[in-house]
Amino acid sequence: MRTILSRYIDPAVLALVADRHFEPRDLIVGSMAGAHKSPLSGFAVEFAGHREYVPGDDPKHIDWRVFFNRDKYFVKQYELETNFVCNFVLDTSASMRYGEAAAQKLAYASRLAMTLAFSVVRQSDKASLALFDDRVRQFVPPGNSLEQILRMGDQLDRNEATEKTRLGECLSEVASRLGRREIVMIISDFFGDMDELEEGIQRLRYDRHEVLLFHVLHEDELRFPFEGLLRIVGLEDGDNFPLAAEDVRSEYLSLFQRFRDRVQLIADQNHCEYVLASTANPLANLLSDYLNERSRRDDIR
What's the CATH number of domain 2-21+83-300, 3.40.50.410, 3.40.50.720, 3.90.1570.10, 3.40.190.10? Predict the structure, then answer.
């Protein structure tokens, strides 16, 4: 257990987000009592049970009688409160193998997903994990226990990134597995057909899910720092050819910027959050900046 957690979750990074309460943007529908306001309404608000207090909970819901008996804080839950489900949809295609050690895109994306999932589970909400390339390879159904994080880590350990990316079909399959109005975090380099990506996102948004895009890219892809003669080896198509870096740098950077702009435009037009996640940016910085910005926007609303 400790090995899986230490492989994917850095305690120093987790400490930065441990006291941050991740909230859905819209009213949500959950399957059990939780901490977030439900869109459902009624004349009766029935007591449903207790759960342990986490930072961010309203202190007025603390059950002081339970505190005096057990010397721990618990909050009361009611039927008109609900949990949310956060679904982590992680691209494990061959292109995500680019990079070395901690800067490999798949390694970085895996730590990002697991850290956020741990934070979600810690606040008694549910997390799920879908791993995909040309199809959905693994799916860990939603859960809100520490064992859920271990199950997710176990599937990441078993995964092999070997195939191409088929974004549209995979997102549609994920959508078919979800309940009503959940959160979907897509973590990918988005190297695939942009029309298919948009169709998949539109399916998720049609079902009223909140969608976030974490665009994971290596610094080499963003900056093209190469010099001299190169041999390009395709991770997904097997192409292998030589070229001179100076001959292609300008056009490459122009085309790559257009690609990034297209992904962000798809996010903006479909009312999704877009986050550029460079593997050169320490995960602690990425998460701290993202959560601060999300909290700032929530305060403005």
Answer: 3.40.50.410
